From TrEMBL:
<feature type="DNA-binding region" description="H-T-H motif">
    <location>
        <begin position="55"/>
        <end position="74"/>
    </location>
</feature>
<keyword id="KW-0805">Transcription regulation</keyword>
<dbReference type="InterPro" id="IPR036271">
    <property type="entry name" value="Tet_transcr_reg_TetR-rel_C_sf"/>
</dbReference>
<dbReference type="GO" id="GO:0000976">
    <property type="term" value="F:transcription cis-regulatory region binding"/>
</dbReference>
<dbReference type="InterPro" id="IPR054129">
    <property type="entry name" value="DesT_TetR_C"/>
</dbReference>
<dbReference type="InterPro" id="IPR023772">
    <property type="entry name" value="DNA-bd_HTH_TetR-type_CS"/>
</dbReference>
<feature type="region of interest" description="Disordered">
    <location>
        <begin position="1"/>
        <end position="31"/>
    </location>
</feature>
<keyword id="KW-0804">Transcription</keyword>
<dbReference type="Pfam" id="PF21943">
    <property type="entry name" value="TetR_C_46"/>
</dbReference>
<feature type="domain" description="HTH tetR-type">
    <location>
        <begin position="32"/>
        <end position="92"/>
    </location>
</feature>
<keyword id="KW-0238">DNA-binding</keyword>
<dbReference type="InterPro" id="IPR009057">
    <property type="entry name" value="Homeodomain-like_sf"/>
</dbReference>
<dbReference type="InterPro" id="IPR050109">
    <property type="entry name" value="HTH-type_TetR-like_transc_reg"/>
</dbReference>
<dbReference type="GO" id="GO:0045892">
    <property type="term" value="P:negative regulation of DNA-templated transcription"/>
</dbReference>
<dbReference type="GO" id="GO:0003700">
    <property type="term" value="F:DNA-binding transcription factor activity"/>
</dbReference>
<dbReference type="InterPro" id="IPR001647">
    <property type="entry name" value="HTH_TetR"/>
</dbReference>
<protein>
    <submittedName>
        <fullName>TetR family transcriptional regulator</fullName>
    </submittedName>
</protein>
Length: 236
């Protein structure tokens, strides 16, 4: 008697196929989000390496995009750098302008200007590093030096008024404003790396030197604002 062959299990000899894990899909950025991401990446690289040493390839690699994406949004690293510098200058200018407009007392103006610059350095370290790395204060032209010149012009009017009140030669006010603002700017560059002592102490010593001079230095200077509890106005 012929035996009926058994039906074959179609899966009996089939190799085991493991399901591949599905790759997590990256969330697609809007054009605005991508632009801001490239600016953030560029800011960090320019602060770390400087403009000349940073390449489009590095920016694209750190942002996890292709080089054409960088060119599409900014036309190259020059475009990214220009936008970053413009934004940082705007932030710093705003902070310094607010500080200079808060009081008519020259000593408090110096105090507020010093604190404003140190506040900016503390909260926008990468931005300040970019400004001073590629446009140092000693340079005749450049973003940071131009900004410091604008601030000195504002301070000049305050000093001229104070000079007139004390019967000093008012024509010297522009020179003194450059000295004063330059001293604050260079101290800020030093504090960028040092970060010690704290910014309130640095500002107090800046005002001490600017206001009293070396011959009349106070051995333990304090900020006027910390003594009075405000930004007040009486001349010390």
């Amino acid at each position: 008697m012929t035996e009926t062959p058994r039906a074959q299990d179609p899966t009996a000899d089939a190799p085991t196929v493991r399901a591949r894990p599905r790759r997590a899909q990256r969330q697609r950025m809007t054009a605005r989000q991508r632009r801001e991401q490239l600016l953030d990446v560029g800011r960090a690289l320019f602060a770390e390496r400087g403009f000349a040493a940073t390449s489009v390839e590095e920016i694209a690699a750190r942002a996890d995009v292709s080089k054409p994406v960088v060119y599409e949004h900014f036309g190259g690293k020059e475009g990214i750098y220009a936008v970053i510098v413009d934004r940082e200058v705007e932030k710093l200018t705003s902070m310094l302008t607010d500080a200079l407009g808060g009081s008519r007392n020259p000593k408090i103006v110096v105090e507020q200007a010093a604190l404003a610059l140190l506040d900016y350095i503390e909260s926008h370290t990468d931005g300040f590093r970019i400004l001073v790395r590629d446009s140092p204060v000693a340079q005749a032209t450049g973003t940071f030096s131009s900004l410091i010149g604008d601030v000195a012009t504002q301070v000049e009017h305050l000093l001229a008024r104070e000079f007139a009140r004390r019967d000093f030669e008012t024509s010297n006010a522009p020179m003194y404003s450059q000295m004063l603002v330059g001293m604050i700017a260079l101290t800020g560059q030093w504090w960028l790396e040092a970060r010690s002592p704290d910014k309130q102490t640095v500002a107090a010593h800046l005002v001490n030197l600017a206001w009293n001079g070396l011959a009349g230095l106070d051995p333990a200077p304090r900020l006027v604002q910390r003594e009075s509890g405000g930004s007040g106005g009486s001349t010390p």
